[in-house]
Design brief:
- Helices cover 50% and strands 15% of the residues.
- By secondary structure, it is of the alpha/beta class.
- The protein folds into two domains: 362 residues, Rossmann fold (3-Layer(aba) Sandwich); 114 residues, no CATH class.
- The strands form four sheets. A five-stranded parallel beta sheet has the order 6-3-2-12-13, with helices on both faces. Strands 10-9-8-7-11 form a five-stranded antiparallel beta sheet. It has a three-stranded mixed beta sheet with strand order 1-15-14.
- 37% of the residues are buried.
């Protein structure tokens, strides 16, 4: 396994400066991820806070026993009772079969960090925690996987949404019988390997018809990372929502003040020249409500004082502030945080010292500082997750054969193949075409200049002639490209294959492919190999040649 860092420009602006010029964004974050002394300071600050450790342990043990968790995870849950134990946390939606690769890379980063910090600071205990986001009701976020078939095609398997489940959180959705067919489809789409049967069982056995997507997702992760003591938190559990009740109550009772804090921070970020990631209307609170039909709807402030609205797709239901606060006290399980409040709630409950975030998450934590300040909760160190592109041997050989470099490929646009052909075998043709274009433009400009003195009304005809010629030359350019592609079919196929594997769907591999693709081909040992081989530093995109 050969690992090489590359610098890519496809980054949100705040994230780029967070990684490379922290001084520019330091006013929006509590800690510098490059500075170990900041981690020590964050640990000391966390040590002064109190957490509902015993209640969390009881709830987590109940959850994990239901998921048949390995002993390593149970051991780490018990460790939470020790005040010297801190959490390295990440979170993501519960995508089917583990979701896109970046979810797995988040967990790998968390585990690697926990191991590294344990070695550096033996007086403390560090446990890896995954916050399973299943409050969301956007089924399209989690209902599919993508992989590359034996025919070298990008394929998507997708579960259709049951109309009756509209607005229902993922936590309450049960696995459709349609998933039972996936094993047969995947068996057909992959060549046989020594790992294929075990991989299909590993990924698909947790998805039993009638169980919830959240339970299946948790069981799969605990299988994949069984030896690392990963702890998974289901935030919908009544034991968790009961502990979260003070945050829900204050969010409602001081909705106006909290909203102004958030909007003020947004203005500060925009004045610093950065776009904001989370956009809230002034009337929005940071909470959702789950009604008696398990529909999750946004809670907005009403036009009148002490009035709120439950916002359904096509209608608004008014509800008084006192009634909403009463429900919050008696039934906190009916409330859930939005994307901005979720991290604050997480760090109210857990002794989080580091949160592992993706590029967009890191950017929106700049906005969340205002919420941490409002609730007087320490913000953790925000640490970037590992960003990887895995290169199989067959693709590595093609890249070397065509004398390409990974950085150029990963930053390529839709004209990359055309430009490659232009540079490799069609240079003279394109150069001749460009020279012809220049000469024609120059000649027409000289003609237009002469016509100004003779008859200015004819200049428009020259412009139309120029447009017509440029259109014809453009068509000729396309014909030359198609001819080159026809004469270099093998090369074009090789370039397309490289792009399919490294930029599937014209997007980073980690955002499109599911882990099952690699596990079928290389086995589950790929995970410990990555955890061992990856550098501690996750500040660069990494090319991983297998």
């Amino acid at each position: 396994m050969n690992i090489t860092p590359v610098n890519l420009s496809r980054k949100p602006p705040i994230f780029f400066d967070y990684l490379n010029h922290f001084e520019k964004v330091s006013s929006f974050y509590s800690w510098n991820p490059h500075d170990d002394s900041h981690l020590i300071a964050a640990l000391k600050e966390r040590s002064r806070c109190s957490y509902p450790r015993q209640q969390l342990v009881d709830t987590l043990l109940q959850q994990h026993r239901a998921w048949e968790a390995p002993d390593e995870s149970i051991h780490n849950i018990h460790r939470l009772n020790d005040k010297q134990t801190f959490c390295i946390v990440t979170g993501q939606q519960a995508g089917v079969l583990g979701g896109p690769l970046y979810t797995i890379y988040k967990i790998i980063t968390v585990i690697k960090l926990a191991i590294t910090l344990q070695e550096k600071y033996p007086d403390y205990h560090f446990i890896p925690v995954f916050w399973m986001e299943i409050n969301d009701n956007d089924f399209k976020e989690i209902n599919h996987i993508q992989y590359i078939t034996r025919e070298n095609e990008l394929k998507r398997l997708e579960i259709a949404e049951n109309p009756e489940d509209h607005l229902k959180p993922i936590a309450y959705r049960t696995i459709d019988a349609e998933m039972l067919r996936w094993k047969e489809i995947l068996e057909e789409d992959f060549f046989d390997t020594e790992f294929k049967e075990d991989a299909l069982n590993l990924f698909l056995d947790p998805y039993a018809q009638g169980d919830t997507y959240g339970n299946a997702f948790a069981r799969l992760l605990l299988r994949l990372f069984h030896q690392y003591g990963l702890v998974i938190l289901n935030p919908v559990d009544s034991g968790v929502t009961h502990l979260a009740q003070p945050i829900f109550h204050r969010t409602l009772s001081e909705a106006d003040v909290l909203g102004e804090h958030f909007l003020t921070r947004n203005r500060e970020i925009e004045e610093a020249g950065y776009p904001t990631q989370i956009h809230l209307r002034r009337q929005q609170t940071l909470l959702f409500f789950i009604d008696e039909h398990q529909r999750r709807v946004r809670i907005d402030k009403g036009e009148k004082e002490n009035q709120f609205h439950l916002v359904y797709s096509e209608e608004i239901h008014p509800i008084g502030k006192e009634e909403l606060l009463r429900l919050c006290e008696t039934h906190p399980e009916q409330f859930s945080p939005n994307v901005a409040l979720r991290p604050v709630l997480q760090d109210f409950l857990l002794p989080t010292v580091v949160y592992v975030a993706g590029p967009s998450e890191t950017s929106y934590f700049a906005q969340l500082g205002a919420l941490y300040d409002f609730f007087e909760i320490p913000m953790p160190v925000i640490y970037p997750r590992h960003r990887l592109t895995i290169v199989e041997k067959k693709i590595q050989r093609l890249v070397e054969k065509l004398e390409l470099d990974y950085q150029s490929i990963l930053q390529a646009d839709s004209h990359f193949i055309e430009n490659y052909l232009r540079n490799s075998s069609g240079g003279e043709l394109y150069e001749a075409l460009e020279k012809t274009d220049v000469k024609i433009v120059q000649a027409l400009e000289e003609l237009a200049e002469a016509l100004k003195k003779f008859d200015p009304t004819l200049i428009q005809s020259v412009q139309k002639t120029r447009s017509s010629i440029e259109s014809s030359l453009g068509k000729l350019n396309g014909k030359i490209t198609r001819s080159l592609e026809e004469k270099n079919k093998t090369m074009v196929n090789q370039l397309q294959r490289i792009f399919l594997h490294l930029l599937p769907g014209n997007n980073y591999q980690e955002r499109e492919l599911n882990l099952i693709y690699f596990v079928i081909k290389y086995g589950t040992d790929l995970i410990p190999q990555l955890i061992t081989a990856l550098p501690e530093d996750s500040f660069h995109h990494l090319i991983v040649e297998l």
